[in-house]
Specification:
3 domains; five-stranded mixed beta sheet; Flavocytochrome B2, Chain A, domain 1; alpha+beta; Sulfite Oxidase, Chain A, domain 2; Immunoglobulin-like
Length: 532
């Protein structure tokens, strides 16, 4: 079962234009997730009841038994949704999640995992694409809605969330704070820290929970209390950033796949926990041995039982300067459920996807994790690449993130009074890999001239060479003419401690997944001229 945002954003027109080559291109969302076998015989109605009578009345009628016999390329691979039947045969080999996952739905209903990944249900494109693969109607006797009051809901018991968050998907829940609030405090309050969930939030049993560590010389396990008692506690300030931060900036260049993240899929917290290095040393891990990767497995699982799994290089995990934490507190409070309670890994300077939550297992491996989000997502491709042509196996998994900055104030579209003669511009800057921020520049004339911002690196935060884990906030007053009026474009760029800077245009970093957009961030404001 895979998160649907990877497949939905392809434009409908592009898929339909490709349909003569393969009907698979018209249904890039039908079986984007695998289905638990226990739900295969059920037909559920995530929204309302069965569909109304089809406008096409001459479609053949198939029983559930007949559909169940169509599970191979030779017989045709069929699925049902509500009261219709669909042929997805040509899509199977193109499925980004892999053939083995999608064929778990063969001959069964897709309703259960659409009920989990409700972005399908809310997407017009998803329904139109599925409609293009319709081949028949399900026999009336097999169209059985669930009993009244019954509900398949894998999101029961989800935590409460702040109404201030801007929601990018409800199930799984993903949201970012208002940009205007992002830089108000150096450490982002827990309630508005951006949320990135790939799967339903698990309900963790405090009584039975134990972290398992294996793959090294000794297998060990701990409760959170045992971790706290056995190892020295550490606190670090670290920024976490989704690899899809600022994706909407690339979607204005050309359609991309993924959640529509703005510039606020990034936040900073004070994390408290124990060093992963200390735990691995206790397990007998040797960074000079054959093992080259450390895998993190979460308690969040898809309907097939496959957990969220990712990994980092062992050099980062074992480095005395890597500061990788097994965190149980966030900003001085118990780790919130949305952020991984009771235990998560915090990998400073590395893309958010590697910071696994609800940590169940740590495994030392010779090869990187074979989890989906390590092998078949969160990889960067050239602007000329397309989903149909890329080979995920040849691309490295994203680890460190590039230098980044964004404007948090003024807001795009806001009014500015020319009589004030200056515009105060504020924002954040961050670079992965522990690289600090040396400078932030702001322009209002397309880069012909620049103003250098004042930097706020956080009071009391110790920064060392290649261990700059927290963002830098910045501010600058930009003069404007009292006679100015109309639209004014403001842009920023940052320079990190390795003298890396941001490219000017989104076209230069565009990729079909919309990842790692670090082009100049721009906002447009309306300058109101003097009335004198």
């Amino acid at each position: 079962m895979r998160f649907a945002s990877r497949f939905l954003p392809r434009s409908l027109s592009t898929i339909i234009n490709n349909s003569q080559r393969s009907s698979a291109k018209r249904i890039a969302v039908v079986a984007a997730t695998s289905v638990g076998l226990g739900f295969g015989a059920m037909t559920l109605w995530p929204r309302g009841g069965p569909t109304t009578a089809s406008a096409v009345t001459d479609l053949p009628v198939y029983t559930k038994m007949v559909v169940s016999t169509h599970t191979t390329p030779e017989t045709g691979i069929w699925v049902t949704y509500k009261d219709h039947v669909y042929d997805i045969t040509n899509f199977v080999d193109s499925h980004p999640g892999g053939r083995s996952k999608i064929t778990m739905a063969a001959g069964k209903a897709i309703d259960p995992f659409w009920a989990v990944y409700q972005v399908h249900i809310d997407s017009k494109d998803a329904h139109e694409l599925l409609e293009s693969m319709k081949i028949g109607r399900l026999a009336p006797e097999d169209v059985t809605p669930p009993p009244e009051g019954a509900e398949l809901n894998h999101f029961d018991g989800e935590p409460e969330r702040s109404p201030l968050l801007n929601i990018r998907s409800r199930r799984p829940f993903n949201a970012e704070p208002p940009l205007s609030l992002l830089g108000d405090e150096f450490h982002t309050p827990n309630s508005i820290f951006f949320v990135r969930n790939h799967l339903p939030v698990p309900n963790v049993d405090d009584v039975t929970y134990r972290l398992r560590v294996d793959g090294a010389e000794r297998e060990i396990s701990f409760t959170v209390a045992e971790l706290r008692e056995k190892y020295e506690e550490h606190t670090i300030s670290a920024t976490m950033q989704c690899a899809g931060n600022r994706r909407t900036g690339l979607s204005t260049v050309k359609t991309v796949r993924g959640l529509e993240w703005g510039p606020a899929a990034i936040s900073t917290a004070k994390w408290t926990g124990v060093l992963l290095r200390d735990v691995l040393l206790d397990a007998g891990c040797d960074a000079s041995g054959p093992a080259r990767h450390v895998e993190f497995e979460g308690l969040d699982k898809d309907m097939s039982g496959d957990p969220y799994r990712v990994s980092i290089p062992i050099e980062k995990a074992m480095s005395a300067d890597g500061d990788v934490l097994l965190a149980y507190e966030m900003n001085g409070e118990t780790l919130p459920r949305d952020h991984g309670y009771p235990l998560r890994v915090v990998v400073p300077g590395v893309a958010g996807a590697r910071n696994a939550k609800w940590l169940a297992r740590i495994r030392v491996r010779e090869t990187e994790s074979d989890g989906f989000w390590q092998r078949e997502d969160y990889k960067l491709f050239a602007p000329s690449s397309s989903p149909e042509t890329v080979d995920y196996a040849k691309a490295p998994a994203i680890q460190e993130t590039p230098v980044q900055s964004a404007i948090t104030e003024p807001a795009s579209g806001s009014d500015v009074d020319a009589d004030d003669e200056v515009i105060t511009v504020r924002g954040y800057a961050f670079s992965g890999g522990g690289r600090g921020i040396d400078r932030v520049d702001v322009t209002i004339d397309g880069g012909r001239t620049w103003r250098v911002a004042e930097l706020d690196r956080g009071a009391g935060i110790v920064r060392r060479l290649n261990r700059n884990w927290a963002w830098t906030l910045w501010e600058v007053d930009v003069p404007i003419s009292a006679e100015s009026s109309g639209s004014l474009a403001i842009a920023c760029r940052a320079v990190d401690s390795a003298n890396n800077t941001q490219p000017e245009k989104g076209e230069h970093v565009w990729n079909f997944r919309g990842l790692l957009n670090n082009s100049w961030h721009r906002v447009e404001v309306n300058v109101k001229g003097s009335e004198n």
